[in-house]
Amino acid sequence: MFDSQKIVRLLKSARKIPAEQEAKRQRAWQQFATYLLSGVADQSKTYQYAQRLFMWLCYEDTSNPLSQEVGSLFIFLREHTESVHLLYHYGFWEGMAYQRRTNRLALFVPAQHEKWMTAHIAPCSAIVGKADDGEEEVTIYYEGNLHGYAGVVTYADRAKKAADRLLADYPTSAFAAVPRSALLQVGWFGKTGVTLLDDEHAKGALASWLEVQVIDPQELRFSSQ
Q: Is 38 left (phi over 0), alpha (psi -120 to 50) or beta?
């Protein structure tokens, strides 16, 4: 019989152990993880426990043994709900968990002589994607602020707009799946704004894409900062 009170006891026990006691802390998380997954596997209130585990993993720190289970739980939840509202939320949470694991999303510009992208994406747009190693195709979201959204002033603002859509798997026409070879990575997008690669070629490519000679440091920060 799956004991939900035992879950709470194990979780509280794991949370009380300070980070300095790493080995003991990891054992406690592993004990919690093993028991909770056994409940999911036994189909005991599967959906509810899977949902709670998924949300906990998305918002807790990612040093516990279950951090890599987010993707499989996301697939399970997506397949077992008919609520469009929940689907959007699950997509957003999974995206946020991805960003926390990697701590950032990649920023791209079109590779040189890439005609399709320059024909379909407005110059100066922020282009955001997940920089997974070994992927031949990348799903990108982009934002050029052609509609003049309030508060979208800098390159970092545009990147945030595109990143929010990517993380929420939001339906939009401003996305595409393109070959990795069609993209040149120029930096990273994170909570504090944009960090450029320490690469003069990448910096020059971004400046050219932004139609400037020298990139203004303010463009790499949110206008609200």
A: alpha
* φ and ψ at residue 29, rounded to 5 degrees: -65, -40
- Which residues on adjacent β-strands are paired with residue 107? 128, 187
Tokens coding 220: 């790499």
- How far, in Å, CA of 75 to CA of 199, rounded? 37
pLDDT band at residue 39 under the 50/70/90 scheme: low
Q: Which residues of 135-152 are buried (b: 16+ CB within 10 A; e: fewer)?
A: eeebebbbbbbeeeeeeb
pLDDT for the residue numbered 156? 93
| DSSP code of residue 144 | -
Tell me if 169 sits within 8 A of 78, measured CB to CB: no
DSSP E strand boundaries for 3-43: none
pLDDT greater at residue 31 or residue 84: 31
